[in-house]
Design goal:
alpha+beta; 7 strands; binds coenzyme A
């Protein structure tokens, strides 16, 4: 199944709204979706455009690039991925992502992260930090499948949870 990462645009309004509904209806985490949980499509898109260049970011939040992941045969938004390319946040790392609730368990997160790493290379990063909750087995396996090397395990006091932090080194040949 072929997937593609693209920057959000008006053409995908309906698909993004369906994705959001699917996540909210299933009470899912929405990592790597920016403000989509709380914003309507127009506001979310505006923020994606602004934040990419670090414009109007709240509380000095670093810029990020938001991607939607399209399944090419039916144009469905099957996931979202965000790259925080300028600064590494020690808790959230460089990349966040999620897969539509009704599309999980098909290997899509592994494929989508692989595409995300290619984007990171284009952004001239030579390694990325990706973190997951210690309880998130699917995300851990996704990171490991893409070459993740465990850096450490860390207790995040302000959130009262443990995370694992990984580096992925981006080879020239990727
Ligand atoms: C984590 C998430 C992205 C995984 O997406 P997915 O497309 O279902 O994952 P994949 O199908 O690519 O599977 C990845 C690996 O996890 C395993 N896996 C999938 N679902 C699993 C589950 N519920 N429990 C344990 N392992 C699971 C798969 O077998 C695969 O492992 P393998 O390579 O050893 O076979 C998805 O569950 C999600 O969006 N969760 C909410 C947001 C989130 O947690 N994001 C990550 C933040 S760090």
């Amino acid at each position: 199944m072929e997937l593609e990462l693209i920057f959000p645009n008006e053409e995908y309004r309906k698909e993004v709204e369906l994705f959001k509904k699917n996540m909210l209806d299933n009470n899912s985490r929405m990592d790597g979706c920016g403000s989509l949980r709380i914003d309507d499509f127009d506001t979310w898109l505006e923020r994606c455009i602004d934040y990419k260049d670090g414009k109007n970011t709240p509380n000095n939040m670093p810029p990020y690039i938001q991607y939607i992941c399209i399944r090419k045969n039916d144009n469905k938004v099957i996931g979202m991925l965000q790259i925080r390319h300028k600064e590494i946040n020690p808790i959230f790392g460089n990349i966040g992502y999620c897969i539509a609730f009704d599309e999980r368990g098909k290997g899509y997160s592994k494929m989508m992260l692989k595409l995300g790493l290619k984007e990171c290379k284009k952004l001239n990063l030579d390694k990325v930090m990706i973190n997951c909750l210690v309880t998130n087995e699917a995300s851990r396996r996704c990171i490991l499948a893409n070459g993740g090397v465990l850096l450490d395990r860390m207790f995040v006091k302000e959130r009262n949870y443990d995370i694992e932090r990984y580096y992925i080194y981006l080879d020239k040949g990727m």
